Amino acid sequence: MYLDVFDHNPYGTDCWLLAADGTDEAIVVDPGFEPEAVRALLTAAGKTPVAVLLTHAHLDHAGTAGPFAGDDVPVFCHPADAVAFTDPVAWRRDGFPNPLEPVKDLRSFEDGDVLRLGGVDVEVWHTPGHTPGHCIFRVDAEVLVFSGDLVFAGSIGRSDFANSDPTAMRRSLARFLTLPDDLRVLPGHGPETTVGRERAANPYLREFG
């Protein structure tokens, strides 16, 4: 497996790059702010992006998804957050003043979908709260989950934005803890962790057992 992360950007957003063994096709999770730098990292590894997956449509995760993807690479986003691209006026009304650049090939997914991308099966879990369309991506073959801004090492994502939902966030956190303890957690910010480590030590998850 090829796995790398790019986090040199103003918000310290983790852009994750994943490819199965024996292929040059890579998945990009949350391209963030530096499309050229991410492309250079892929090129140096001999990889070509075949899909962009967005955990959610906040600027620090999705701001350059359109320029990064260009005409050839599809961008996947939950419909509840895709409004950031399709109706930027509504997105600004929800408290996000910075419009996202247009995406040429915008595709959607729903909870429970399994996307076959570059030889990797990615299971979508809709985990609203931080945003209405926030999702995490489970890759069982590699024993990992991309957690976006749901769970970080020792912390969790905010649920105090204009379109956040604290009640939905609590449900999503409880659902996160149904994942196996040995699953690697690759978050949207900060270092990787595991489900078991967060279950045992994350103070924001203690109430969920």
What's the structural blueprint in terms of helices and strands?
Elements lengths: L1 E5 L8 E5 L5 E5 L5 H10 L3 E6 L5 H4 L2 H5 L5 E3 L1 H8 L1 H6 L12 E3 L5 E4 L2 E7 L8 E5 L4 E5 L2 E2 L2 E2 L9 H11 L7 E4 L5 E2 H7 L8
Parallel strand pairs: 3-4, 4-5, 5-6, 10-13
Antiparallel strand pairs: 1-2, 2-3, 7-8, 8-9, 9-10, 11-12, 13-14
Q: Which architecture would the CATH scheme give at its second level?
A: 4-Layer Sandwich
Q: Which structural class best describes the helix and strand composition? A: alpha/beta
The major sheet is characterized as: 6 strands, mixed
* Succession of helices and strands: EEEHEHHEHHEEEEEEEHEEH
Supply Rg: 16 Å
The total beta strand count reads 14
Question: Which fold name corresponds to the CATH topology?
Answer: Metallo-beta-lactamase, Chain A
The strand order across the widest sheet is 1-2-3-4-5-6
CATH class descriptor = Alpha Beta
Distance between termini?
A: 32 Å
Q: How large a portion of the residues is in β-strands, by DSSP E?
A: 25-35%
Instruction: Write down the overall mean pLDDT.
Output: 93
Number of domains: 1
Shape: globular
CATH superfamily: Ribonuclease Z/Hydroxyacylglutathione hydrolase-like
Number of helices: 7
Low-confidence stretches: none
